[in-house]
Amino acid sequence: MQWTLVIPLKPLARAKSRLADTASDTVRPGLVLAFAQDTVAAALGCAAVADVVVVTDDPLAGAELAALGARIVPDAPGTGLNAALTHGEATVRSPRPRAPVAALNADLPALRPPELNRVLDAAGEFPRAFLADAAALGTTLLTAAPGHALRPAFGTGSRARHRASGATELDLTDVDSVRQDVDTGNDLRTALTLGVGHHTATASTGLLIPET
Fold first, then answer.
1. Rounded distance between C-alpha atoms, residue 93 and residue 40, angstroms
2. Residue 129 domain-assigned?
3. Do residues 139 and 158 lie in contact, with contact meaning Cβ atoms separated by under 8 Å?
4. Which of 104, 151, 193, 210 has its CA 20 to 30 A from that of 22?
5. Is the four-CA dihedral 108, 113, 115, 120 of positive or negative sign?
6. What is the rounded distance in angstroms from the CA atom of residue 45 to the CA atom of residue 162?
7. Boundaries of domain holding 190
8. Could you tell me which residues are beta bridge partners of residue 72?
9. 32: CB partners within 8 A, 6+ apart
10. What CA–CA distances, in Å, run from 39 to 18, 69, 123, 146?
11. In a domain, 158, yes or no
């Protein structure tokens, strides 16, 4: 199965406020963009991915991610993460109603194509499926097979909400790079240990990551 991934991205200046103790207001937008660049580049390198759609209104992010090969869709709803994902899904499925669609976080700088491939292959066995994040509270990926709506419920505690919605939780090992999103300095430290893409490696140079 060849998936279209929908990746939502806030305007860079408003994203990742919890990284304020790691990156200043002037540095953080570039770091957030680097996360997204490495996420998109890895996703496009995955054999199970047909294309990547990024939903964003940020002009710099749109230009940089389009240069990597992503299709950019404006965040027409402008009312948050789940509305952006639903809009992206509708954009994908308007010309291709049977397209398999997956929502993927934009903050997976350690993402490895073979691990993403394993997750998407496993997800293809179910109408809807999701992968919990490293903290086991949130979600980094949600899939919807042909004929099924995505029904995203991302945000704090989304693992429980996606399970309650009937999506199958994927019980996979050795896919840490798909689970490790970055919200805090500790998350970034873990991602760096896993091995991030070159955009994040460059943007992270010289950062003092506090212990928490």
1. 20
2. yes
3. yes
4. 104
5. positive
6. 27
7. 3-204
8. 54
9. 12, 15, 16, 107
10. 19, 12, 19, 24
11. yes
Distance CA 84, CA 212 (A): 32
Residue with tokens 């660049």: 37
209: in domain: no
Q: Is residue 24 part of a domain?
A: yes
Give residue 88's identity as a one-letter amino acid code: G
Residues recorded for the chain = 212
Tokens 């990597």 belong to: 68
Neighbours of 169 (CB within 10 A): 14
Number of domains in the chain: 1
Judging by beta carbons within 10 Å of its beta carbon (0-12, 13-18, 19+), is residue 57 exposed, middle or buried?
A: middle
pTM of this prediction exceeds 0.85: yes
Helix axis angle, 113-123 relative to 28-44, nearest 10°?
60
Residue 71 CB-half CA count within 13 A: 12
